C-alpha cells in the first residue's frame, strides 16, 4: 500500500473513481465538487448498480435515476454497465488511482469492479449508511483491512474498529458524515417534494426497512409485512390532518420481488398505490429535501435512526423484539432519542399527541446528541475534512 501511495503521490493529476450504486447511497456531492475544483484531481463517477436482490428492472431503474440526478447537477459520469449481461467497463482504462467503494461487501456490484482486481489503486470508503449495529461484518471484512482510507463520522468508530478489525482502525480518519453537509447547509436551495403545499397538514415520512427475508441472518429489524396495509389505510384515514410519504429502503423492492407471497406485480401495485391518493406519495432516491421539509419520521430503519437527527424533528421507531441487541453504542444513543411503537395504536398516538399537537419532549435530547456526536470535527464540513485528508496524504 505504501509503495502504491508513493507512486500516486508523484502524479500531477490523481484520478479518483467513484463507483455509484444508486441515488440513495450517493453521499459525495460536496466532496465531488471540491475535487472537481482542484486541478490536482480528476474525479470520475462510474455507474455501478447493486446486483444483490436487484433484478434487471431494478438495476435499470437505479441507472436511470442516477443519470437524472447527475445530469441535473452537471456531474461527469460514465455509464458502461450492461444490465442484461451484468457486465461493467474495464476500469483499468481509466487509470484509477483512488477508488471509492460505496459498499464494502464482495459481490455487491459486478465482478469487473471487484477491489481485488486493482493492485495499482488505493481504496477509499465512506459508509453508505450510518452504521449502528455491532456485528463483525460491519468492521472486519477483507475490504476494511486493505482499505487505504476509511472516513467515519466520529471517534466512537475508532473504538468499534479496534474491537472488531485486525487492521482497519489504523486507516480510519474521523471526518464527519458527508450527507450532514447537505442537512446542515442553510444556504442550500430546497426542493419541495410534497404534493400539497398546505402547512396545516403535517408531513410524515414512513421509511420501512427490508431485513425480514433472510431468516439465517441475525439482523432482523423490519416490520413491513405486518403493517404495510395498515400504514396505507392510516394515511388514507387521516387525509385531513397529514400527508404521508412512503420512503422504502432501496433494497426493499428487490426483496419483495423475490418474496413467495409478493413478486413483481404485487410489489409494483403496492408502490403505485402510494402515488394515487391526494395526500400520499412514493419517494425513492435522494431524501435530504424530503427530510428537511417533513414534520416527522416513522421507521424501522438502520441509518435513518441517526440521519433524521440532523433535522431534529420528532422520530418514531417501530420496534421488533430485542431490537436493541443489534445496536452499537451509537445506535443505542440514537435509538434512545426516539419515541417507540409496538403497535398501530402506538403509531397513531404518536401522530396525534406528538406531531399534530406539537408536543415534543424529546427535542432537547436529540439536539444534545446532534451537538455531541454528529457535527463534523475541525470546524469544517465532513467533505472538507475528507478532501484535506486526501490532499495531505498525497502531498497535494
UniProtKB/TrEMBL annotation:
SUPFAM superfamilies linked to this entry: UDP-Glycosyltransferase/glycogen phosphorylase (SSF53756)
GO cellular component, one term: membrane
GO molecular function: CDP-glycerol glycerophosphotransferase activity
Pfam families, per database record: Glyphos_transf (PF04464)
InterPro entries in UniProt: Glycerophosphate_synth, TagF_C
Domain of life where this protein originates: Bacteria
Protein name in UniProt: CDP-glycerol:poly(Glycerophosphate) glycerophosphotransferase
Amino acid at each position: 500500500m505504501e509503495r502504491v501511495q508513493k507512486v500516486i503521490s508523484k502524479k500531477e493529476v490523481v484520478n479518483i473513481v467513484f463507483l455509484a450504486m444508486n441515488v440513495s447511497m450517493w453521499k459525495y456531492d460536496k466532496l465531488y465538487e471540491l475535487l472537481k475544483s482542484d486541478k490536482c484531481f480528476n474525479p470520475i463517477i462510474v455507474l455501478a448498480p447493486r446486483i444483490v436482490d436487484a433484478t434487471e428492472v431494478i438495476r435499470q431503474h437505479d441507472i436511470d435515476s442516477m443519470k437524472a440526478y447527475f445530469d441535473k447537477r452537471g456531474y461527469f459520469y460514465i455509464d458502461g454497465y450492461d444490465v442484461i449481461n451484468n457486465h461493467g467497463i474495464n476500469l483499468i482504462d481509466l487509470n484509477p488511482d483512488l477508488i471509492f467503494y460505496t459498499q464494502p461487501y464482495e459481490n455487491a456490484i459486478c465482478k469487473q469492479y471487484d477491489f481485488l482486481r486493482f493492485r495499482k489503486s488505493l481504496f477509499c470508503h465512506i459508509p453508505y449508511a450510518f452504521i449502528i449495529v455491532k456485528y463483525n461484518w460491519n468492521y472486519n471484512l477483507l475490504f476494511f483491512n486493505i482499505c487505504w482510507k476509511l472516513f467515519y463520522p466520529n471517534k466512537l468508530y475508532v473504538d468499534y474498529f479496534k474491537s472488531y478489525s485486525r487492521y482497519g482502525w489504523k486507516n480510519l480518519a474521523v471526518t464527519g458524515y458527508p450527507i450532514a453537509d447537505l442537512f446542515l447547509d442553510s444556504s442550500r436551495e430546497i426542493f419541495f417534494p410534497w404534493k400539497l403545499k398546505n402547512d396545516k397538514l403535517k408531513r410524515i415520512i414512513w421509511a420501512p426497512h427490508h431485513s425480514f427475508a433472510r431468516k439465517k441472518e441475525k439482523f432482523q429489524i423490519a416490520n413491513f409485512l405486518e403493517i404495510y396495509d395498515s400504514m396505507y389505510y392510516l394515511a388514507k384515514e387521516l387525509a385531513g390532518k397529514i400527508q404521508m410519504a412512503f420512503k422504502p429502503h432501496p433494497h426493499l423492492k428487490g426483496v419483495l420481488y423475490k418474496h413467495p407471497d409478493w413478486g413483481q406485480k404485487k410489489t409494483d401495485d403496492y408502490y403505485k398505490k402510494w402515488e394515487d391518493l391526494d395526500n400520499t406519495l412514493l419517494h425513492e432516491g435522494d431524501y435530504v429535501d424530503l427530510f428537511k421539509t417533513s414534520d416527522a419520521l416513522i421507521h424501522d430503519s438502520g441509518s435513518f435512526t441517526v440521519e433524521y437527527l440532523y433535522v431534529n424533528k420528532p422520530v418514531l421507531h417501530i420496534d421488533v423484539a430485542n431490537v436493541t441487541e443489534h445496536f452499537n453504542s451509537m445506535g443505542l444513543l440514537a435509538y434512545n432519542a426516539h419515541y417507540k411503537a409496538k403497535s398501530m395504536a402506538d403509531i397513531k398516538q404518536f401522530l396525534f399527541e406528538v406531531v399534530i399537537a406539537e408536543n415534543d419532549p424529546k427535542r432537547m435530547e436529540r439536539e444534545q446528541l446532534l451537538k455531541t456526536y454528529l457535527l463534523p470535527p475541525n470546524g469544517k464540513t465532513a467533505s472538507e475534512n475528507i478532501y484535506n485528508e486526501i490532499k495531505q496524504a498525497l502531498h497535494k
